[in-house]
Amino acid sequence: MLTLDKLGMWLHLAVVLDGKARQVVHYVNGAPVAREALKVAPPYRLSSTELGNWNAKSGPNLGRQADSQPERALDEFELFSRAFNDAEVHDLYVKGRPD
């Protein structure tokens, strides 16, 4: 879903972790692209995390070896206290996309 031809393009990426429904949903540009059952129960916690750093080879004990190339950009990050449904995620995409 995220292919090389999309590099340099603005994309809206969203992940909804729904503890009540016991599922995680991934969205690209307001559309759901993957739904999976959660294998763990709440509470959910992020461990060592870097926003905008997408190198899967990096880890919490590898120091600053992670790939953080300047051509990659994170425009905005939002964290909500509840799970959004498909329509709400689509609405976020529509309201946030550049003209």
Please state the oligomeric state of the protein chains shown.
single chain
For the largest beta-sheet, the strand count, sense and barrel status come to: 3 strands, antiparallel
Q: What letter string, H or E per element, gives the SSE order?
A: EEEH
Mean pLDDT: 81
Strand order of the largest sheet: 1-2-3
Stretches where pLDDT is under 50 for at least 5 consecutive residues are: 64-68
- The separation of the N and C termini measures 22 Å
Give helix % range.
Answer: 10-25%
Shape descriptor reads: globular
Structural class: alpha+beta
Strand elements, count: 3
Number of DSSP helices? 1
- Backbone CA Rg: 15 Å
Strand content: 15-25%
What does this structure look like?
By secondary structure, this protein is α+β, with helices and mostly antiparallel strands. It has a domain at 12-41 and 72-99. It is built from one helix and three strands; from the N terminus they run βββα. A three-stranded antiparallel sheet has the order 1-2-3. The radius of gyration is 15 Å and the shape is globular. The relative contact order is 0.23.
